[in-house]
Amino acid sequence: MASISSRTSLVLDLPPSCIEFVPGHRDLFVVGTYHLERQEGEEVVKEEENGGAQQRSGSLVLFRLAEDEVTKLQTLPTPSAIFDLHFAPPTHSSTPLLGACTSTGTLALYHITSSPPSITHLRTLQLFPPTSLITYFSWHPTIPHLIGATLSDGSTHLCNTSPSSPSATEQATDTDTDTDQTALTVPLHSHDLEAWVLSFIPNPTSTGLLTGGDDSVLKYRRLPAPLFPSPAKITTSSSSSSTASTYLTTVLLHNDDAPSPTTFWSDRRTHTAGVTAILPLPGNLVVTGSYDDRMRLLALPVGALRTPTVLAECDLGGGVWRLKDMTASPNEHGDGSADVDVEGERNEFVLLASCMHAGTRVVRLARSADRASWGFEVLARFEEHASMNYGSDVQDVEEGGEGQARTVVSTSFYDRLLCVWRWVG
């Protein structure tokens, strides 16, 4: 296992909580920050236990990464702390659409413009009461404007983020408070403690929602099939808005249906601490991360089974807060023969894990030659962070850059450190 050193590093103005590269702009990335206006104390993910009375603020910071040089292009202060951010799938918007969830129950939406690069605020939705902390959200893979969200009170929801009027879509302001709107939300299941993460799990006939919480429980709920199989069938913003709203109405109508093993299950045995990361893979597989320092490969149950099967697990030395698939696509490996078998299934994945106090890990997940088993192997570790590593992301491979090193940007919370490093596979 290689130990990697940073190429460059810098100290941010506020503690970083999340990071993502901008889709289609491999040189740009955004960092969300989370500042609790109190004395130093417990880590960010436990602060809501004090009743939500503390004042939190944050910012979105746009950076450019060129070779090993990091340039700050813009800092956009936010009145609430940023807990999580994600870009919508490229099919959902003609320009990069960024969502950021906050410590006061809001989801703020932004566009990233490229000439010059800047963050432009679109609107802020008051999805939940201001005392609610949104811990995580995920865009629906095919329905624009639709997200799933988890809250610090343990609840999980589907939310329609479409504008209430066409004018709201076009309005851009410098603050997060001028265009607050209330959006339609539909409650789903709840965890006994904080809900930390969720992921949409596509399958041929419907979409499922998988959630993890501080209660060490993994929960699955099957959702109704989308009204449209692809965003390509949605041609206008008004029709996509209507689709999200109508879909939520369908989900609401099914909320009182009696659960069955194929529509809902709850697993309390697999994880020995809170479930904090969920990464879906092809073939009914998911990788999970937990406060128990382990990442696990699970085969989701099918038919009447109600418990996932653990296919592999690995102790990473720290709580696994975030997971990202950094596997190069087949054309980036030439013919792709190393990781795709004759049936077109991937035999190998390379994963990036943000491991809280242990730093960052690059991990290989590979299937055996006889296809009978899977195993994890830690390929590299980055341990220059002196505090909690909550956010890391990997830069896209440059077009035509087969076999090149992968550039990673990782962050840590209390020391406000941002590091750039490279891993050579």
Automatic annotation (TrEMBL):
Per UniProt, which keywords does this protein have?
A: Repeat, WD repeat
Composition bias, Polar residues = 158-167
The pathway this protein participates in, as annotated, is: Protein modification
Question: Can you cite an annotated GO cellular component?
Answer: cytoplasm
Entry's Gene Ontology BP terms: protein histidyl modification to diphthamide
The protein's superkingdom reads Eukaryota
Q: Does the keyword Repeat apply?
A: yes
Q: Which GO terms describe its molecular function?
A: diphthine methylesterase activity
Signal sequence extent: none
Alphabetized InterPro entries for the sequence = Diphthine_MTase, WD40/YVTN_repeat-like_dom_sf, WD40_repeat_dom_sf
Stretches the record annotates as Disordered? 158-178
Protein name, please? WD40 repeat-like protein
Which organism was this protein described from? Answer: Saccharata proteae CBS 121410
